[in-house]
Amino acid sequence: MSKKKFSFLNELHDRLLSVVEVTKNGQARLKRTNLKKSLEDAFAAGAKVAASGIRVRFPIIGSLVRKEVKPRKAGKGVNPFTGEEVMVKARAASKKPRWSFPKTAKEIFANKRNW
Predict the structure, then answer these.
(1) Is-contact 84 78, C-beta < 8 A?
(2) How many domains does the chain have?
(3) Residue 78: which residues within 8 A CB-CB, separation 6 or more?
(4) Taking the CA atoms of the chain, what radius of gyration do you get in angstroms?
(5) What's 99's domain CATH number?
(6) Chain centroid, CA 4 distance in Å
(7) How far apart are CA 74 and CA 48, in angstroms?
(8) pTM attached to this predicted model
(9) Residue ranges making up the domain that contains 37
(10) Is residue 24 part of a domain?
(11) Quick check: is 85 in a domain?
(12) Quick one: CA dihedral 69, 73, 74, 78, positive or negative?
């Protein structure tokens, strides 16, 4: 089974084409509710594809991918603040979402003039 690459822009474009209406004058009209629903559906479709293990890139805001979390055995650990021994619970393996921001977004937040 080959994994098809997901394109957020193509998904959003297809959804918008299905809800845009053309007036008698030839102007395109789009209701806010239809725009909101199209955006939400496109993001949900991207999240569903990312959950299957494919990296999904959203323009400007970043990318979403599934992260494999390894299992952890139960045992004793040390509280770094008090030095007291504590029992650490076992944890099963799981899959969690991971979001990464593009370099341009990180630079915007790093620049103190934008605060």
Answers:
(1) yes
(2) 1
(3) 84, 85, 86
(4) 22
(5) 4.10.520
(6) 18
(7) 32
(8) 0.76
(9) 8-67+95-114
(10) yes
(11) no
(12) negative
